[in-house]
Design goal:
Number of domains: 1
Number of helices: 6
CATH architecture: 3-Layer(aba) Sandwich
Structural class: alpha/beta
Strand order of the largest sheet: 1-2-4-3
Keywords: Signal
Order of helices and strands: EHHHEHEEHH
Shape: globular
Number of strands: 4
Low-confidence stretches: 1-22
Mean pLDDT: 81
Length: about 200
């Protein structure tokens, strides 16, 4: 069954200078495909993710982050290290509309991805993400699942903007832009300030 929701979160789009709080930025889902509970979860996660992404706390953490630019994936679109203010400018360059599809995890490929801890897949510079549902528990811990999924969406959004994960050494991956941004969002959500 397919549910289509359009989030009306866009107020206006401004060019963002990373040094200032220049106005609202929005991640918007044009389509969310999956079970009804997960559609609701994604909508709620996008709302709190947008609150975090527009916060001064988020901007400050990104400007202070030490990103790892070594050995990124072979299909990366950002070929060299860029300053942190440019990371923010790329993330904030426009409000972004994406498609979210929840997968049940059936089939060999998805079983293998679950075995290795994969939460979802997003190709670089493509505004679509496929999310596995095995790691979310919206019936048992809805609020926790919303926070976890908001951090995951922030990570996947980085891929949509061209930031890659590591090509090698999976033990050394937490400081690349997508994981760093997801971790920053997760830390800020744990404060309870953005619920």
């Amino acid at each position: 069954m397919r549910y289509i929701y359009i989030l009306v979160l866009m107020i206006s789009v401004h060019h963002v200078n990373a040094q200032t709080n220049s106005g609202p930025f929005s991640l918007v889902a044009s389509e969310i495909d999956g079970p009804k509970l997960y559609v609701r979860l994604a909508n709620d996660a996008l709302k709190i993710c947008n609150r975090v992404l527009n916060s001064d706390e988020f901007r400050g953490e990104v400007l202070r982050a030490k990103f790892d630019w070594e050995e990124l994936g072979s299909y990366y679109f950002i070929p060299k290290a860029i300053p942190n203010d440019q990371v923010l400018n790329l993330l904030y360059s426009k409000s972004y509309t994406m498609k979210i599809e929840f997968k049940t995890g059936r089939g060999y490929n998805w079983r293998m991805r679950r075995m290795y801890g994969t939460y979802g897949i997003t190709n670089l510079n493509v505004p679509e993400t496929k999310s596995l549902i095995w790691w979310l528990n919206p019936t048992g811990d809805y609020k926790g699942s919303v926070r976890d999924y908001a951090a995951h969406i922030a990570h996947e959004y980085c891929h949509m903007r061209g930031f890659a994960d590591k090509a090698k050494d999976p033990d050394d991956f937490q400081d690349v832009v997508p994981y760093s941004i997801g971790n920053i969002v997760n830390r800020l959500l744990q404060t309870g300030k953005f619920d």
